[in-house]
């Protein structure tokens, strides 16, 4: 799969204990993203955070939380992300969803030998 240089990053913040039909919501979101043919998704488990209820959720030993923040990041073309947003709306009861434009430098797997720019990362301006 090819990604254009200009893509979008969909970032979804939910709680570890959030469920959809008894299953962890973050797992359901990743499965739905895969079913919709999105380029990729990653789930990150945070060690500390708070959300709309202002409750601190932490992984500290003395204060174990069973509802740590989970962040799902999904990257794809803008039209693919836009088509996926109604799916999120259907399955999320609470949480935060953000969207930002990103510049794709490289998107490849082991069978792909060349990056988008033949100069590799040297051509990137930071």
Number of domains: 1
The residue fraction in helices comes out at 10-25%
> How do the strands of the widest beta sheet line up side by side?
4-7-1-8
* Unreliably modeled segments: 115-126
Order of helices and strands: EEEHEEEEHE
Outline the biggest β-sheet.
Answer: 4 strands, antiparallel
The dominant shape is: globular
CATH class: Alpha Beta
Strand content range: 25-35%
What's the short version?
The chain has 126 residues and is an alpha+beta fold.
Secondary structure topology:
Elements: E1 6-15, E2 19-20, E3 23-24, H1 25-35, E4 40-45, E5 48-49, E6 57-58, E7 69-76, H2 78-91, E8 96-103
Helix pairs in contact: 1-2
Features:
single chain; 126 residues; alpha+beta; Alpha-Beta Plaits; four-stranded antiparallel beta sheet; two-stranded antiparallel sheet; 8 strands; globular; disordered C terminus
Task: Explain how this protein is built.
The chain has 126 residues and is α+β, with helices and mostly antiparallel strands. The chain has one domain: Alpha-Beta Plaits, CATH 3.30.70.120. It is 20% helix and 32% strand. The protein is built from 2 helices and 8 strands; from the N terminus they run E-E-E-H-E-E-E-E-H-E. It has helices spanning 25-35, 78-91, and strands spanning 6-15, 19-20, 23-24, 40-45, 48-49, 57-58, 69-76, 96-103. It has a 4-stranded antiparallel sheet with strand order 4-7-1-8. A two-stranded antiparallel sheet has the order 2-3. Strands 5-6 form a two-stranded antiparallel sheet. Strand 5 and strand 6 (57-58) form a beta hairpin. It is globular, with a radius of gyration of 17 Å. The two termini are 26 Å apart. Mean pLDDT is 83; it is low at 115-126.
């Amino acid at each position: 799969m090819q990604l254009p240089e200009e893509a979008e990053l969909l970032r979804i913040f939910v709680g570890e204990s959030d469920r959809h039909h008894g299953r962890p919501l973050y797992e359901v979101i990743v499965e739905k993203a895969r079913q919709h043919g999105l380029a990729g998704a990653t789930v990150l488990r945070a060690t500390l955070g708070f959300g709309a209820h202002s409750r601190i959720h932490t992984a500290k030993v003395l204060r174990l939380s069973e509802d740590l923040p989970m962040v799902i990041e999904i990257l794809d073309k803008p039209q693919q992300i836009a088509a996926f947003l109604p799916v999120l709306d259907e399955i999320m009861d609470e949480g935060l969803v953000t969207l930002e434009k990103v510049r794709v430098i490289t998107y490849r797997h082991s069978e792909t030998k060349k990056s988008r720019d033949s100069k590799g990362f040297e051509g990137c301006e930071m």
